[in-house]
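Researcher: Last one for today. Full complex below.
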Amino acid sequence: MPTWCVILMLAIDVDSPRVDFDTQVMPVLTKAGCNSGSCHGAAAGRGEFYLSLYGSRPEQDFDQITRSLEGRRVNHRRPELSLLLQKPTEQQSHEGGTRLDIDGAGHALIRRWIAEGATRIQRRTLHHFKFSADHPRPAAVGALVHLTARAAFSDGTTEDVLPVTVLTADDPSAVRIDPDGTVTVLRPGRHLITARYLDQVTPLELLVPLTGADPGTTFSDSTSIDANDTVTTSPIDRFINSRLSLLGLKRAAGAADATLVRRLSLDLTGRLPTVEVAEHFAADQSADRRQQLIERLMASEAFVDYWTLHLAQLLRVNGFKADHEAVAGYYNWLRQAVADDRPLTLVARDLLLATGSVTQNPPASFYAVTADPRVQAEFVSQAFLGVRLQCANCHDHPLDFWTQDDYHGLAAIFARVKTGPVIQVSRSGQVIHPATGEPAVPKIPGAGFLTDSEDGLPVLAEWMTAKTNPYFGRAAVNRIWKQLMGRGLVEPVDDLRITNPATHPELLDWLTAEFADHDFRPKHLIRLICLSDAYARSSMRLPGQPHLPAWYATAISKPLSAEVYLDAVSDVTGTRQSVSPQTRSVRAVSLAGLTAKSAALDLLGRCTVGEACADAAVTGDDLSVQLHLLNGALLNQRLADPAGALMQSLQQGSDVADLITLFYKKAYSRPPAAEELTFWKAQFRDTDQAATFQSVAFQSVAQDFVWSLLSSEEFMENR
Amino acid sequence: METRFCMTHHFHQLRPGRCDGMSRRSVLQLGQLAGLGIGLPQLSSASSVASQSGKARNCILIWLDGGPSHLETFDLKPEAPAEVCGPLDAIATSVPGVFLSECLPLLSQRMNDMAVIRSMTSPLGEHNLGTHYLLTGYRPTPVLEYPSFQTVANFQLGRSESVLPRNVAIPEYRVGGARYSGHGFLPNEFGPFSVGGDPARPDFRVQDLTLSEKLTLDRVSRRQKFAEQLARWNANVTDSPVADSPAASAPAVNPMLQRAFQMLTSAEARSAFQLDEESPGTRRRYGTRTVGQSCLLARRLIERGVRFVTVNQRGWDTHEDLYTRLKEGYTGAKVGVGLIPSLDLAVSALMDDLKQTGLLNETLIVIMGEFGRTPKINTRGGRDHWPRVFSVALAGGGIPGGQVIGASDAVGESPADRPVTPADLVCTIYSLLGIDPSSELQTDTGRPVRLSADDAAPIRELLG
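Model: Here's the assembly. Have a good evening.
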């Protein structure tokens, strides 16, 4: 028997009741891969044989198998000659190769089903599917884990369905899964195995310690993160530390004062701390100085600007070519919501229900992103629910429970929104459901269909912003967490799904509940996170420990975004150059509506029009960016600006050490180390012994000195 | 027929006939490389992986962005009904029995140096997804972005000491819906450098490559010295003092900044991009369109040691009015200047010049896009996305020319013979470049990833 044959072992009892197509035949087809996306499960089918993806539509598949092709797929008189069996066993040529073992249980079962008349008796339905492992926390590489998959049916029976459950490892190089459900751990870390049985997809997590030591005792009891901080261990840290302990990872000590004040300032306001703020923080002896700093930063205009930028990027304010007045109005409306710390549920509700002229009612611009109701459905689910619904356009989502009805039902709600300069909701407007060819019935995703008399949008807004909605709060928490911590608890942040569980599920649950209990106001959440030990750790890698950002053993160093970098450069150089020819604004983070042109921002890599993007960072490993920083106007013009901080200092100053120290503090929020100061002083001496501050030679060294700070990694990162 | 189609990934390990060009499995340690590229301890050993077996040193990818119609380029169906056959005629080539598009008269004469695969097949009919598959040999997953075959080949050579980047995109690497970065999980420094300007424009230059009048060469080298000093301090602070990371021996400064310094101070680097150093006759021979001048620039770069070039010809997403867009260029043109005639001029001139200098034999040219187009012309006179069968053309790099591999069915709808997946194609390209497709890379989380997918098999007809 060829080794690559699929061997299906099913216990078949000759006295057992008649074969049930839905719960017995379908899993065999799925396990054999017949209905996968690259085979007959593709929207276009294969070889004129069309199956629903992973068997999501048994009634259609039954029809395909028994009725289409003039019924030639089943042979009632000689079941073994049925095409349904001849093809996957390659007794007749089959492009897809051998999928079923001719002596296997799967073959026997399908054969018996045909012999019994190939009918769809619908004897039972699936009630419950349980997928588990005997040792989800194996001690080390090489350990064996045994999986079980059991199904409970409506007729009261339960079965071991492991042989017909499709088992997939997220990372096949980390675990080997044998056909009998034995898993061999090949690499340490956290691994996911997903089981697919009928319409159920269930992930299972295996955690294998990364160090050989006994988990639980390996992490050091590092000193308190901030000696002056009386913050007791927050629940956040309990969750984070418990995972670190399970994985046998040590955690870093707290970041230096200069690092922490720079981190908080950049994270909360998108700006560098001023020299005074940084010095004050370092000198402050009060027990709650971190808390005080957080409150001051959150109360600033810069906080409002910066978090409005995040919100505007999420809502793709840059994505449409509306008139500037409407864009500005929309931006200001969002800005006010941030300034008021408005519950995100209320913001979402206002946006979803906004109608009228986009110039008179700013939130109505929410509907200006697209005129296509399907795109709108994808946009809304991605932005508010953190869910990628796209898959369900053409078929039920293969890795989640979203169905085609959900997708087109949501689109049907938006089909009644008439877009343009005036947003109106009408009684007409529809989308065609591709599976039926009929207008899709409006539907709340994952919930019920709407009746004819119901207005879709209010019901949708109600459902989406309810405290019990399983997605809205989690999606927002996950995005804010990523903003501050550098990595989402779920990655990517817009891909919350059953098969993509959080790295810290309990933490995400706890934060989501906390967020809901505080009316979905962002500031409470931001405060909680920023006060945790995990937030304030050093980002320096730990000796001898693998660097795995997902577990927050060290803080994650975040590259500055294009906007933040540009503003930081303006701050250090003390220049007030406009960042866009269309506006007099000198601050990139507050470019109203983001439609303003800015060559500098484009080159640095800001979000481009029409895409949702949260990760636009200045990449120091991009050659064109480096060429521009070195040779282009962006830095050189600001360094040479006669009104700028550098040239002004040279006009006034007299001490080289002061000059060096000043720009170190401006750029890095710290004074130079002794070694650094010595090096730089020597560079200035080398230029010209007799040089004064005003000489061209001295000025060019000074410019090159500040240039090197501004293009250094320490400056381009929030570490 | 081998079992190729119906592969769900759980069965990969059970399949015979994998793309194991060689048995040696080499794991390249990425470890420290993840960030801005400080310290590449194991990288120097990487170059030894490239074996001597492949004939090709360089690879020029002519990317037909948007998905070229196979039925108007390399796989015409003159016998098919009118709505399939389309507006273009088939013409004979220098190889008896092989026909190409009437808009490819020059390439037709060079068919004996080319190979056309007419049975490419993929399940992915969306731009970003198809592009990822064609350029990496892997179907996209939400977890991991894979590196393009050119980035991988570049990475295998180890860190470059040359002034010019070894992997260049002209005019820019905005491919297939623009979501694909090119470098995937490998460091950006091995990914494509986008030239950033249109070589067909008279004022074409690489942005910021001409030394600003405010700077001098002395100041550039002073900045380099300063940057190196800051990078050294930074490495001392950020690198863990683990023995396997000898920060002192590694180049401290960000390699892209290093290259910026080198390029800015090098007359040769600037000259490489100076198309006006070519005679007007040569420039005309490549055609005046972007793709023509891009191919001319590609030739100049390859001659100067650049190893991997992507020429990105945009506009092939012909959902409507394909006759004008593919052939005429503008309505009523007397001489067609559309996408196909422009491509014909550009690639034939490129092949001729490389052949003359002997470079063609060591330079693989791959002409492809992310999928084909629907067999039936739609109501807007265009064709929509069709990945189930499409064509790819190759030349140079030591491949046996004059052959057609595989076939589509009578209406260009499905492979009729010898289906070839994008994974097979990428696997073949690695083999042609002398790279073991079974060797492994590591992601920054330590996950080993084979260069070529498990279910890939090389196209033996091309390996010669």
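Chain B has a mean pLDDT of 85. The two ends of chain B are 21 Å apart (CA to CA).
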